[in-house]
Amino acid sequence: MKLIGPFKQIIPMTGLSLKGAISDNQLEIIKDGGILIKEGKIRAVGEFTEMLTTVKSNEIETHQLSGDHTCLPGLIDAHTHICFGGSRANDYAMRNSGKTYQEISKAGGGIWDTVTQTRKATKEELVKGIVKRAKRHLANGVTTLEVKSGYGLSIPEELKMLFAIKEANETIATDLVATCLAAHMFPKDYSGNPEAYLEEMVTNLLPILKEENLANRIDAFIEEGAFTPEVIEPYFKKAKDLGFDITVHADQFSTGGSEVAIKHDAISADHLEASTEKEISLLAKSNVISVALPGASLGLGCAFTPARKLLDAGGALAIASDHNPGSAPMGDLLTQAAILGTFQKLSNAEVLAGITVRAAAALNLSDRGQLDTGFLADLSIFHTNDYKEILYNQGNFKPCMVWKKGELVYNKHKH
Ligand code: NIG
Ligand code: FE
Fold first, then answer.
1. Which residues keep their CB under 5 angstroms from ion ligand 2?
2. Which ligand 1 atom is at minimum distance from the Cα of 101?
3. Quick count: other Cβ atoms within 10 Å of Cβ 365?
4. Ligand 1: which of 221, 298, 304 to mutate, judged by most atoms within 8 Å of the beta carbon?
5. Which residues neighbour 59 within 8 Å (Cβ) at sequence distance 6 or greater?
6. 30/168 same-domain check
7. What is the domain extent for residue 353?
8. How far apart are CA 196 and CA 186, in angstroms?
9. How many domains does the chain have?
10. Are residues 159 and 69 in the same domain?
């Protein structure tokens, strides 16, 4: 067993409702706390000195901290595309010179450009890229990262990406949660129509994902220029019948996607920058978790997801980085979540829940995102005696230590 502490504050993120607004005074704060760990899981959270005396010293390895430390659950980034080849710095420059994301896409840039570059990369090169990016996220406190395919857009190329994600997952401390995004856009080199493409994915790709344990989640980009609600309908239905969880790129530039998400009982609807009162109210009434992606708003220079309205309407809100080479190249969850909080007037509790407990729910994971007995011992530790300092510094204040499943996997002073 291991005992870590004392922490000036432990913010366990327990006892919070999944849906609706949360005020900071609803956050439990454990003062002078300790965390007892056994076999990668939390055995107990409590008062450090009490724990020191109750646990027999010969059974315990103590990691005594000196100075001010505050502990949050390991952060969870529930939406990324960090498996890719090449760069889209040209798109960024073009957008900032006045072209829109969709104009660039129509002219042959955008997602298709990354598809071309990702297809050129070997699986090993993709693994290297994922590992490099995941390590950076880990240093920012992220211990669970969702990673999508979707730059392959053919059966062998989607498989190459998903095998790369699986291999990367085996080589790093971070847990990577893979999602198949074969329905990212209709591939320009496909000989049939979108219906035929999706049917081929259902018949020949989805069963392999199960057999090879490559992904449990299916995503689609519902948008003008990507897939329509009508075309995606049978795809999602069949994916659900095969036992996959559904998640949707919804309402990014135009509405329609969030209704599809609700209809198919998706775990989450992500983006939602274009959602109107109607979609906000439908989402809030549903079990679908709304995922705001401030990194895409910052990358594209467009409006943020109406996070405040979603929460006030009673919705569940997670926040993710959308880290990808096109719309969201920054890939810094804490910075983006803090900035979203500033613009959308979110409490510390709402932002922190969005990247911990509510983000776990957006990945359908019930073993993380909170610091309590039985949960994974995933910890983000910051050098402060007040948790409010973390978001106040708008991402410029990084963790000094990160633990994953009870192991110290990042120590700022050693990097
Ligand atoms: O979440 N909107 C669609 N997909 C990604 C962007 C992917 C890209 O531009 O390469 C997103 O923003
Ligand atoms: Fe995305």
1. 322
2. 9
3. 17
4. 221
5. 1
6. no
7. 76-362
8. 10
9. 2
10. no
Gap between the Cα atoms of 401 and 217, Å rounded: 31
Task: Please give the Cα distance from 318 to 18 (Å, whole number).
Answer: 10
Residue 232 sits in a domain whose CATH number is 3.20.20.140
Look at residue 26 and give its three-state secondary structure.
helix
Same domain as 408, residue 294: no
CA 219: distance to chain centroid?
A: 13
Q: What is the CATH classification number for the domain harbouring 54?
A: 2.30.40.10
Å from CA of 324 to ligand 1 middle: 7
State pLDDT tens for residues 325-378: 999 999 999 999 999 999 999 999 999 999 999 999 999 999 999 999 999 999
Which ligand minimizes its atom distance to the CA of 111?
Answer: 1
Cis omega before residue 73 (within 30°)? no
Tell me whether strands 268-271 and 217-221 are parallel, antiparallel or unpaired: unpaired
Interval 392-414: pLDDT, tens: 999 999 999 999 999 999 999 87
Query: Which token pair is 83?
Result: 């498996």
Ligand 1, CB cutoff 6 Å, lining residues? 81, 110-111, 114, 221, 249, 252, 296, 322, 324-328
pLDDT at 98 over 90: yes
